[in-house]
């Protein structure tokens, strides 16, 4: 019972925004903008539901969680999905919300209570037809060339980073005290391949082009969500108006639909 209650509270945390905090917390602004958009909210409810679900053994279904997360980023409005992913924070409350947005207990950590070797997840990615091209795109889009980040490189870098969400190397914010990101792995047991391991890890932890792109995203924040917010001022707009969404969304789980129906009065 306690487990179910905890999952429900996390679901509420992820799906609800606080109008009184809007404008003070960019991650809440992003959550509210997603809530106001039928497609974004439907896809977000789907990945939260899939990532919170537990099998009979008590483990999360990582494959379903990752698949729903990839759908969120591939089919959701980019302005909104990126706002949720790259919202900037000045306090720990905002940063913790940002860290928890994509259900890291499943999507990030999975069934590994301790971080595996980065070489292990790199090898898993290289064998995956989903992950490998996305990692190559991230490396190409976010790497300095040769010692500087190119003009206009930032948006491509952020798109490529978002493309890694829901893959074997899904990154996340590592704590609520910084904007540092990394996959769930370390290089403590990499042996004579430590340099290779740290080079891969450094794509996230020592990447000034990625850091700069994330900071630049925040500088354009006032205009990022305004068009989305303005488009939903019509009082007839409803969270359940999904006729414009892909027909494939009709196959979403009944639990996701019930979650939206139950939470709609609170949104």
Automatic annotation (TrEMBL):
Residues 1-21 form the signal peptide. Keywords: Cell membrane, Glycoprotein, Membrane, Receptor, Signal. GO terms for cellular component: external side of plasma membrane; receptor complex. Residues 27-106, 118-209 form the GDNF/GAS1 domain. Pfam families: GDNF. The keyword Glycoprotein applies. GO terms for biological process: nervous system development. It is found in: Cell membrane. Gene3D superfamilies: GDNF binding domain. GO terms for molecular function: glial cell-derived neurotrophic factor receptor activity. Belongs to the GDNFR family. PANTHER family: GDNF FAMILY RECEPTOR ALPHA-4 (PTHR10269:SF2), GDNF RECEPTOR ALPHA (PTHR10269). This is GDNF family receptor alpha-4. It comes from Dipodomys ordii (Ord's kangaroo rat). The gene is Gfra4.
């Amino acid at each position: 019972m306690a487990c179910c209650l905890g999952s429900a509270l996390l679901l509420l945390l992820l799906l609800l925004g606080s109008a009184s905090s809007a404008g003070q917390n960019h991650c809440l602004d992003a959550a509210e903008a997603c809530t106001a958009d039928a497609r974004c909210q439907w896809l977000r409810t789907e990945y939260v539901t899939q990532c919170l679900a537990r099998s009979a053994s008590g483990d999360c279904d990582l494959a379903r969680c990752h698949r729903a997360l990839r759908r969120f980023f591939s089919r959701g409005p980019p302005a909104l999905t990126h706002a949720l992913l790259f919202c900037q924070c000045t306090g720990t409350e905002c940063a913790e919300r940002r860290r928890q947005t994509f259900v890291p207990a499943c999507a990030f950590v999975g069934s590994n209570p301790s971080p595996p070797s980065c070489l292990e997840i790199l090898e898993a990615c290289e064998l995956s037809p989903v992950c490998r091209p996305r990692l190559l795109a991230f490396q190409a889009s976010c790497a300095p060339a040769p010692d500087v980040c190119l003009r206009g490189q930032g948006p491509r870098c952020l798109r490529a980073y978002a493309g890694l969400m829901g893959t074997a190397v899904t990154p996340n914010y590592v704590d609520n005290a910084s904007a540092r990101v990394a996959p769930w792995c370390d290089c403590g047991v990499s042996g004579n391949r430590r340099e290779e391991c740290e080079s891969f890890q450094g794509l996230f932890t020592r990447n000034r082009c990625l850091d700069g792109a994330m900071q630049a995203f925040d500088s354009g924040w006032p205009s990022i969500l305004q068009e989305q917010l303005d488009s939903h001022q019509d009082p007839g707009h409803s969270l359940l108006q999904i006729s414009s969404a892909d027909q494939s969304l009709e196959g979403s789980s009944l639990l996701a639909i019930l979650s939206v129906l139950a939470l709609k009065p609170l949104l």
